[in-house]
Amino acid sequence: MDNRNIQYFMAVFELLHFTKAAERLGISQPTLSQQIRILEAELGTPLFDRIGKKVVATEAGKLLWHYGAKMLQAERDAKNAIKELLSGEGGTVRLAMLPSDLDFQLVPLFVPFKAKYPHIQLQVFSTIHVQEEVLNHKVDIGIGLQGAPDKRLVQVPLGSEPYHLFVHAASELAKRKEITLQELEQHSLVMYPKGFLGRDLVDEVCLKEGFELATVMETSSAHSLLQLVSAGVGAAIQPKGLLRQFPERLDIVAIPFTGPTPVRHMELMYCTDRFISRSHRQLTEWLIDFFHGKNST
Known about the structure:
Blueprint: H1 3-15, H2 18-25, H3 29-43, E1 48-51, E2 54-57, H4 59-87, E3 91-97, H5 99-116, E4 120-126, H6 130-135, E5 141-145, E6 153-168, E7 190-191, H7 197-208, E8 217-218, H8 222-230, E9 236-239, E10 252-256, E11 263-271, H9 278-295
Parallel strand pairs: 3-4, 3-5, 7-8
Antiparallel strand pairs: 1-2, 5-11, 6-9, 6-10, 6-11
Family: Belongs to the LysR transcriptional regulatory family.
InterPro entries: LysR_HTH_N, LysR_subst-bd, WH-like_DNA-bd_sf, WH_DNA-bd_sf
Protein name: DNA-binding transcriptional regulator, LysR family
């Protein structure tokens, strides 16, 4: 089974569209269709059902996708191991992390990392599905919310961070030393939409206490939430450390919660069956030191 045909198959599986997959791969659509037919003939079963213009993966296709991802990762691991053996330095590391952490915490970290390890090519992806991206071998390392123990993963705790209430400095709440979540039922709030990790953490704590918070506006980025707080539209519930990244924002005040408090527990994760390159180890150690140092301040 040729890895090139597996790559072709993976592209069609992910896009469920032969023409778009061919464009991504830089080949013609007839060539792609022919290679998929060759792969199906080799395996003795269809990998896709073609219903008019709609493409649907068969059960065999879903099974091949699972093992195909591992095959391609094994090829990358082999190439990286040999490259490292020959050169002694360099390599590419793919990192997935939550959007707010990428935008507000780790971009400044990457500058000194690049200065210290100039031969390492770092590719960083923003996603709320960090663990899924790691398990599917789309990235090498992930930083996200702590999940249940998984034997497929190496999971390294990075620390915990409570959420605070961010309010405008001119707000009636700005002089408060602390506040309860339930008091916010009477105040205007701007939050992530339901289904976002930061919103779900808050909602879970509220539901356990028997109430639910309403919003006046919802947006999908932490930066826009801060802008809405600055404009006086409403208060936001965000990780404590977020405001430290913006010391110039004197118009926003952070108020700690008393009583039940949303807390996010962070972890670094990578697959147990991966080849761990020198560049992988260097980035992992750099990230762990950064988070442990941040949480001790």
